[in-house]
Amino acid sequence: MASMSETSRPTVADVLRLMEELWPSALAESWDACGLVVGRPDATVSRIHWAVDPVSAVVAEAVEHEADMLVTHHPLLLRGVTSVAGTGFKGDVVHTLIENGCALVAAHTNADSAVGGVSDVIAEVLGLTRLRPLAPSDGGTEEEGIGRVGELETPMTLQAFAERVHLNLPSVASGVRVAGDRQAIVRTVAVCGGAGDSLFDAVRASDADVYVTADLRHHPASEVREAALLDDGRPYLVDVSHFASEWLWLPAGAQALERRLAEDGHEVEMAVSSIVTDPWDFILVGRNPS
């Protein structure tokens, strides 16, 4: 562990200021709850832990690593609560963080929309170029918005592309589901980290050959496929794990924040959680209905 003087350590407020530069809160959706959840702005920070979900196991890991701050993609308190008593799991998380001097910060839809955010990282991992937002942000720059649309340098079959997705995302029990002809050729790709079936109109407008996102529900996906059958079969669908799609951003986010802190003269240790917080443990496949 590198030696750090007290003067080289940023405060929570310092970290929040630089996070605001990287992932502006103005880019967050109106329903979202980003920013500081637990912690004092004047507390010093020497270790920052990164994770997708602020679940009990992740908090325990952050405490074990003596983190002063936990940055998660998903908010702990997205919906209103009337109590944070330690009798419930959210209250227990709040108490554990406070008792161990660990701040909690959520970077959610602001990190989805920002340049270098969740969907940009997915697009980069999948080899997409000439990126543009799938759904541009109101009042943002032309590069900002939810989701990305880009081009593969070389067209490939849907089967080969789905295998690329599978190989580049963290392994989870639910795997990768695909809708479309295995031998169909794809080049234009739309991506959205997390749940993206609210963006089907934007996907169709983008003329994407295939759409990669998570948490596709039966009815919206079925309707898209039925409509596609009346046309040229596009867009094909690649449904991935919500957790896996967003985990990809964590190392990139940690590196970006570490770099900005260093530019400000601060030295902070970064660590990305190795805990898989995808909620599914195993899957059974291959049996046809009788």
TrEMBL record:
<dbReference type="Pfam" id="PF01784">
    <property type="entry name" value="DUF34_NIF3"/>
</dbReference>
<comment type="similarity">
    <text>Belongs to the GTP cyclohydrolase I type 2/NIF3 family.</text>
</comment>
<protein>
    <recommendedName>
        <fullName>GTP cyclohydrolase 1 type 2 homolog</fullName>
    </recommendedName>
</protein>
<comment type="subunit">
    <text>Homohexamer.</text>
</comment>
<keyword id="KW-0479">Metal-binding</keyword>
<dbReference type="InterPro" id="IPR002678">
    <property type="entry name" value="DUF34/NIF3"/>
</dbReference>
<dbReference type="InterPro" id="IPR036069">
    <property type="entry name" value="DUF34/NIF3_sf"/>
</dbReference>
